[in-house]
Please model this.
Amino acid sequence: MVVSTEKMDGIVSMSRADLTAEVEPGVITGELKRRASEMGLFYPPDPASSEFSSIGGNISENAGGLRAIKYGSTSNYVLGLEVVLPTGAILWLGRHTHKGVVGYSLKDLFIGSEGTLGIITRAVLRLIPMPRTTSVLLVTYSDASASASAVKGILGTGILPSALEFMDRASLSAVSAYRGTEVFGEKAGSALLIEVDGTEEETGKAIEKIRAACREGAVSMEVSHGPEAEGLWSARRAISPALAKIRPFKLNEDVVVPLSKLPELVSGVDRIAGEMDLRYANFGHAGDGNIHVNLLYDEKDGGEHERALRAVDMVFDLVIRLGGTISGEHGVGITKLAYITKELSPAAHELMRGIKRLVDPNNIMNPGKAL
Amino acid sequence: MVVSTEKMDGIVSMSRADLTAEVEPGVITGELKRRASEMGLFYPPDPASSEFSSIGGNISENAGGLRAIKYGSTSNYVLGLEVVLPTGAILWLGRHTHKGVVGYSLKDLFIGSEGTLGIITRAVLRLIPMPRTTSVLLVTYSDASASASAVKGILGTGILPSALEFMDRASLSAVSAYRGTEVFGEKAGSALLIEVDGTEEETGKAIEKIRAACREGAVSMEVSHGPEAEGLWSARRAISPALAKIRPFKLNEDVVVPLSKLPELVSGVDRIAGEMDLRYANFGHAGDGNIHVNLLYDEKDGGEHERALRAVDMVFDLVIRLGGTISGEHGVGITKLAYITKELSPAAHELMRGIKRLVDPNNIMNPGKAL
Model:
């Protein structure tokens, strides 16, 4: 079955037989996911912003999101791209098939390039069959370090969850304030939200194993399905806007460390925020080692803003020392530009600039960003 | 647990906590897979050559193999690369973490570049937990088109098999002749070898569903596990060397078409081989739409060799017409160089050449290959 719907919403075609979709860049990710699901198909990338971010934006940032732990980031689902170069040349990169290795993988050069090489005008995406069912386990702990330490045990079960999200106390209480109700339980000082997908038999057994691995030190554990689980995910997605309930502004970072370093990251951020006298919230994709470190401040308080900027610098240094990266899925843009040399070697950075000059010699594509 | 074994075999480290391995390029893929499995970990890429191909080679070709249908090709498991450029500069590309988007994804430019940009000297790979168990279903049909048509029904079950391999009559009889025993049953005119992985409950139910989807027109269906299943995989891996039992030489192509076009590919190759009076064997990764089309000939018979070369050209034209690619996982090298402009647009090809000139202006890295 191929559904052709070009006129409707930018989804040019979707094929159950080919397990592919062809889309224009403006398609909203959540809409693509719903349309695929109506055909029994699954587009796995699931940024928390899926209801308002577009596929073109997801590709330009190589968006990750909640299901990357099992299914990978956007780049794993892009088979082909049509791009317009600064010269006006229209390039077709990649393919319509599930595999292919002819020529350099230029599509991967454009994925995550933040609009600095060309304009994406069309994408061919890989879809997979929709998993039968999902089960969600919410485990709360008294503090953040207990959650961070539990991740190792969960991954040690041999089960690869389809999501493994971490939320610290500030994230939990911000959501509760935002929603006007205690979403995650009053006693929760931190929480893990763990999803497994597959057949019913499988997810039931998997959740039991993960529950056993989480038990030590847990304050509460609760399994949910369907609308109840959807409610938890919706609360999780609300963290970012909810943080304004604590302080009006935030520096929202997007760091990743090797999985074993998560506890050190969490304790290190706490130490830095203490030294800088700042409130903060940590949450995110613990199963990828990818934590959104939000340093909160009020712009009217110049000293606080200044301390937040200093704290960002210290967090990035900590992340690099732990063998990590300063951006897992949000990209560099303008705000991280000053920091990328902490991570990129001069030789790698120079090669990237060389490619930029080759493709866009007049520097007209999103100038001043990313590199 | 981090195992450090640098002295032994090129596996620098392997970490269950981080779900990563750091390796030198000479590590044999099968050895890495075994070492990971001893720690309960899984390195999914599984080229049929895994017992003698190396990780460095797999990365340079972006090798796919038997498990790509579910797990993707090598590129999905490369987190970071150390490469030496023609200038002698040593570059670190990518990262040690499971995600990261700082700078252009230059590691993906080097993956599949066939040694034309630099020399890979180190790789950081992503591992996942080892699936609990696998079940294998061997289904035979009277002819190739029945197998090719069954693929759609299998993928329509909503189950994503961990392998979905196709073998035509010539492939089956070559293996039987090579092994001196009828491996796949006397009546088999083609076969599908389907593996599912997961928990025992899951794989049992999944195999039953797939069996139901395969039933129509099947000559035989048999489920196997453990050593018996291993025997089938070993026979499958033996096809390529076994083809010398039919004719001493082969042109082994590696084409991919959209999944729905598999039946047209199979019937088209049969027609072309008939016109050119050639024997041939088709086998490969049907679940990816990736078929190894082997055109068989004897070099002593100049006319036959000539006809085989003409048939390759016709097969490639067919593949492009079906929306496919002329190489899914083996790369271009020298032998496909004359054909890549059938697939690459002049603008894309020129950009690739521009990048080659930028990185290797003196053209000293594997000159004359790939582009």
Q: What stands out?
A: Residues 137 and 208 of chain A are 9 Å apart (CA to CA). Chain A has three domains: 11-129, 133-237, 241-342. The two ends of chain A are 43 Å apart (CA to CA). Chain A touches chain B through 93 residues (CB under 8 Å).
